[in-house]
Amino acid sequence: MTDATDTSGVGIAVLVGAQWGDEGKGKLVDLLAERAELVVRYQGGNNAGHTIVHAGETFAFHLIPSGVLHEGTTCALGNGVVIDAMVLRREVEGLLERGIDIGDRLVVSPHAHLIMPYHVALDEAREMAAIAGERTGHPSAGVGTPGKDSAAIGTTRRGIGPCYADKTARRGVRVEDLFDPEHLRSRLEIALSETNVLLAHYGHEGFSVDAVLDGAMAHADFFRRYVADVGLLIDRTAARGGGVLLEGAQGTLLDIDHGTYPFVTSSSPVAGGACAGSGIGPTRIDRVIGVAKAYATRVGAGPFPTELFDATGDQLVERGGEFGTTTGRRRRCGWIDLVALRRAARVNGLTELAITKLDVLSGFEHVGVCDRYELDGELLEEFPALAADLYRASAEIELLPGWSEDVSAARSLDELPAAARALLDRIEASVGVPVTFIGVGQDRAAVLELAATPA
Ligand code: IMP
Questions:
Q1: Contact, 63 vs 26, CB < 8 A?
Q2: Neighbouring residues of 31: CB distance < 8 A, sequence distance ≥ 6
Q3: Which of 99, 219, 360, 402 could form a disulfide with 364 if both were Cys (CB 3.0 to 4.6 A apart)?
């Protein structure tokens, strides 16, 4: 690793979470957006949450790409995103109240699906029913092995899963449907004929087509201003050398295909999802930057091999401020999982790694890393292919020397304690991907940028 001297443009870069989300992607996007004309979200919705500290002010975004704080940056929501119109409007208005007019800098794909009130109701009803079933020991809840058989996913209850389910089942509502009320009515009739039955099953009142239609139509004019072909915009921006950043939400291990199914989100955060969710081809991507914390966290249910259940885990929660931006939930914490990171490197085709929140590890006597799992007396260097094996595998934790120094003021590698550098070297060597960014503190400037020398 060497400090960077070249800070040229980003080309077309994908920024993807390499763990279970909450890796600090927003801050990296904010930094890289300075070199990009366009920042595009390609999946997920307001289940995401990015916190950025900018000029002493804290901003939290759920839908709008984090690049919005740069005046020259256009922010786009690609076709792969699911949009809760009220949330988007509130974010646009909230920015305006703080003196930031997003004006012509917001673009929305007409093909993005809308999260409707009945999606939120269904998400909530399913989670509540699953939790109630677990408490009462109802057989359908599969009580027994905590995590594995849990019927509750621990979703953010924002309607994400039901919205993507409708999209895949071809009964979804897209942004462009708002521009044709009669067409929208017929879409809602199709959707609600099924969804109301499901809601009744959970004891929830159904939704009337008229009421949902009125509510949706109230957003039509808002969207009309922003819709455009996001794929074409990316193409044109890149053609004039503008730099495009494709911003992933959640993370690789929450991917609907490559994550720890069923404890995943309903979209494709992986780099491949960036193409499908924004409208460009894979040959156009120049860089794929995977973001990982120097330790690991997870929100909601599901396997987490390196999870710490002791005081060290509590310390990581406290020092790292590990509470969700979207739901306020306490995040589960553990040591960095290099087995999982190697898999993330492969699945995403990572060209670079950004390691964030290194400062949180200051003050620990030892810092753990997991380079292998143990399963049935065998040591595994790769993530198990079968989900069932992942539940049975245990993480082999190696304790490396920690450091006591505060690293948040460091702006070059040689200002980091030797033990911190050794941890970064270990991550780079184990994952086989060069570390090009190191997050050392909350502040926007607290990021070291390194030259991308081969790992
Ligand atoms: P959903 O995306 O709301 O359906 O939730 C599915 C799973 O993904 C749950 O375990 C959530 O906690 C998790 N999840 C969704 N969004 C995020 C995020 O932005 N960060 C971390 N976890 C998330």
A1: no
A2: 437, 444, 447
A3: 402
Q: Convert the pLDDT of each residue in 116-161 to its tens digit.
A: 999 999 999 999 998 887 655 443 333 333 444 567 889 999 999 9
State how far the Cα of 421 lies from the Cα of 403, in Å rounded to an integer: 10
Structure tokens at 205: 């009142």
Mean pLDDT (whole number) for 225-250: 96
269 CB under 6 A from ligand 1?
no
52's tokens: 């950025």
Q: Which residues are catalytic?
A: 22, 50
Residue matched to tokens 């699911």: 82
Residues 155 and 62 in one domain: no
Token pair 């009220």: residue: 86
Question: Do both 362 and 445 map to the same domain?
Answer: yes
- Determine the Cα–Cα distance for residues 418 and 429; give it in Å rounded to an integer: 16
Cα(439) to centroid(ligand 1), Å = 23
Q: How far apart are the first and last CA of the chain?
A: 8
Alpha carbons within 13 A on the beta-carbon side of 320: 32
Distance of CA 112 to the CA centre of its chain: 17
Tokens 């987490």 label which residue?
304
Of 317, 319, 252, give the one whose Cα is nearest residue 291.
252
441 shares a domain with 402: yes
How many separate domains does the chain show?
A: 2
pTM score, whole prediction: 0.93
The residue whose CA has the least distance to atom 10 of ligand 1 is: 300
The secondary structure of the chain in percent helix, strand, coil, rounded to multiples of 5, reads: 40, 20, 40
Q: How many CB atoms lie within 10 A of CB 249?
A: 28
Q: Is 254 in the pocket of ligand 1 (CB under 6 A)?
A: yes
Same domain membership, residue 308 and residue 268? yes
Measured from the CB, is residue 250 less than 6 Å from ligand 1?
yes
Q: pLDDT of 248-288, one tens digit each?
A: 999 999 999 999 999 999 999 999 999 999 999 999 999 99
